[in-house]
Prior knowledge:
The chain has twelve helices and 64 strands.
Amino acid sequence: MGPAAVARAAAVGGATLLALAASSTSSGPAASCSRGGACEVAKETALIQFRHITARNAKRSTSTFNRFCGIAVNRENGNEYDTKDLESAVNIVGVEGLWHYNWRMSTDVHVPGVLFVPMIKEPGHTLGVSVSELPTANENGVGTVVKGWNEPDDPGQAGHDYKLRSGPEAFAQKWTDDMNVAASKGYTEFIGPAMAHDVCWLDHFLKACETTAGCPEKVTYLAFHRYRNDCDSYKASPDNIGWRSDLGYILSYYRLMEKYNRRNTGFQIRGLVWDEIGCFENDYSTFAAEQDQLKYINEWYVKTLLAVKAGDEVISAAIRSTPWIMPVGPDAHAGEYALGKCKAIDGGANAGEEALQAIRSLVSVAWFSISPALNHLWIGGDGGDGLSSLGEVYFNACRGAFGTSDVSEAPSQAIIDEPVPSEPTVTTEAPSDVAMDLDDKTVRLVSAETGQELYANELNWDAGFGGRPPTGDDGGYWKFTRVASGAFRIINAAHDRALYAAPGYTGAEGVGAGTPSSVGWDGDWTVYPQGDNKIKLVNMASDRALYDDGMVGATANRAGMWIVQASAITTTLPVMTSAVASTSEASSASTPKTLDGGVFWIHNAQSGRYLCADPAQNWFSGFGARDTPDRGCAWKFIRRADGSFRILNTASDRTLYAATGHSAQDGFGAGTSSDVGSDGNWNVEQSGAGFTFTNAHSAQVLSDKKYLGADYEPSSAATWNLVPPTDITTTATAASTTTTSTTGMTTSATTLLSSSGLALDGAVVRIVNAATNARLFALARGNWHFDFGAAVNAVDESALWKLTKQADGAYRIATIGAGRELYAATGGVGATNVGAGKPVGTDGAWQIESLGGDRYRLTNVESARRLKIGGTSVAADIGANSDEAAWLLDPDVTDTPPVTLDGALVTITNIASSRRLFAMPGSDLTSAFGANPATEELGPEGVWKLTKQADGCYRIINSASDRTLYADSTKSWNDGVGAGLTVALDGDWLLLDQGGSRYRLVGQRNSRTLYAQVGKTGIDGVGAGVNNFIGDDGIWAIAPVAI
Length: 1043
């Protein structure tokens, strides 16, 4: 990427590629980040985590390029970047640890000692300045390192030359020529072509390079870029798709380096350079908010890259054991290069270990820091205001980072100025397997000094917290949960309070237990085992060690001893008897043995009414008891570590609560799950033939006397039956008398039939959205959310799905070709964590509910999310019940044969906006041209003839007006796109196959990609821009017509 591409990206964005929900460090969403608040929390998080994982000893490379801390930044677009900005970075990093580049061969921003790396941006020149103008090495802040071509695989950068982008093997000699010029000027280290995304391009380039005289020695490092649009929800965890994707990405380049170094053809590649990294918003329309960039720096740069290079065994073990680390292929030596050919492949059994080696081979990382009118790492204002919060985090982190990769030999002291926090003086032992055994365990913590147990009651923070004589009640139980850094969160099992020790205090001050979502990094604890079931607890954020000397406190230079006693909390779930389903409404299905994960109607034994919540409302509104149950009356039980339950309405994502300090109907209802605190925790106890529900926080008992409410005294109206729902089965046809419900419960092993008699088990179908007619597809070349979606014209086997029934009655749904399985993971909303992958775990099991005819709902068993169309994306939400969440299972899988493009008469319909391209007769250029809804009747003006040219490009000519589609090379985005009577080279188009008769239309001369935005008509929203900033609204379905 370069500055011009960024400006265009900020100006316009295509359709949403993947809408990912935010997972914030603050208490609520934030569109921007000030100097305080959530950003300060995130900043402190990253800085503290860095101090804990950096190594005591680092290694420096014997090479010149030994600076891990890089900046990709230039001075334009009003961002006010200047020498003062660079000096503010030097104040943290030091001159010897920093380098910068600006996509040019020279700079006017200088600080003595800071390395500037010039770039030959594309073959032969940089922005029109010949390679012969490259400055002499070792002069004016320039060292002996030079960067090569910028993103030859991307049409917005060096790849605007289609021949370069599509034929990497033809340019090995040109690379050698450029680098020979650099060598003649004193440069000795050559950073290879910096890839935007296409690892296969680089593989084929290196394949040609190894047989080109002088080329292998002119590739010292492999370079690549990476931008994410999910930084707001990114997490250093094996269950995070983005994290696994990053591991697969860096592994791909590492394998190339290893491959060519082993081939003995002259390559001596010393390491990897990640010289552009940053974050976009979910739709790629602009750069992400600072808070989201901080999250990515913390989770990937600090907790993963730096942690691995520092030898952190916890994160290393997590990477080794992570499944589905998928590099890309195929290998260049297995065939010829083709655009779009690169795809994810199985990483093999050793992928995790190799990913660790890949990270260790990183020589340097450079954060991307330019956006129109602002600069991410600096505040601006002529440089006088210094670093932004993001800049402070980044430079503080990278200043202590390692000089280079594992190829380095000469050891030296770490580049870190401040003292590294020390462990407790009583031991230098690192957390061992004894500590690891605490993960997911609930225990008592008893002070070895005083004999008092640590406890917390129903209050919060430092209130209702401390040491007391052991009492046996649940307030003395604490659950240990290991987090990605290897530390533990320690949560009071009865009252859902997280133990913390805040920085900046000592003794009893700043120590307590608070709401987990509000406790930050000072809620993470390192466990030091001392033998005989004794441990020391040291806070990750404050380095304060927990003790009890009659008052619980925490001090940096003192480490109390705590005895771990096994929990006495029962792990046995309430057993349901046959009386649970004793009402006349009960299903004939088998009764579940536990409540956990079950979905039930909650039916009052005295009043005969059902507990319900309206999906369209919240809190006490739309909440009450009804005589007849409907879809808002089904509740899912989720068991917590302390044995209590969260009770979630399956239609509305509302959680049952009874607030402290209220009674009867007051303070009682069902609210948005993420906003309901500990007053949403319920103790469920069997009472005769039914159950009672007592709020674990407020001690109120659920009842339905004259009114539905919660009181402090139980009564006969407080007994409830749990009834498996049956209301949704009335329209289904089955091969026996029992059916499958939408609740996620298993009923009987019947064969579900459609009204047409289609047996779903084993059926191959198209899954067609009832509201949009879009067909679900997953292309063979992709995985997870990549190359997955829904399109009206989706054809071929990527849109054919096989339904396979499991023993529990749920279905696995997979494409027949590549075997990609549909999933919707727990914790996501909308398009987050929805896709089709392989292999898929328990979130790939689906309940199929008949809505009558051939209409169905698809509900994920594990997450309770229902598949739907959300905007232009495939999504899944709990309780979705509109037409967008209804699907046709169409057994007619025959299709029109693939279109022969040359000479074909076709319609051209955008898959995202369903707008069809037209050009009226009697007009020219942009007049009477555009794209209208496909539902509107169009005559010959909506039909186009495709004519293939000698160079493989196509002319696209309207059959009614004889006007040729074009994109003006001197314009961008919504300007200069139309259909003209006389069109030169701007009318030559590449048709890039996306599978299923869907194509991207890319101007051969200008690399502009045609799009038609959602919600617009005519010429409005029709344009052509940079391909990697255009989503599904840049993909067109080409269908043959007969006239």
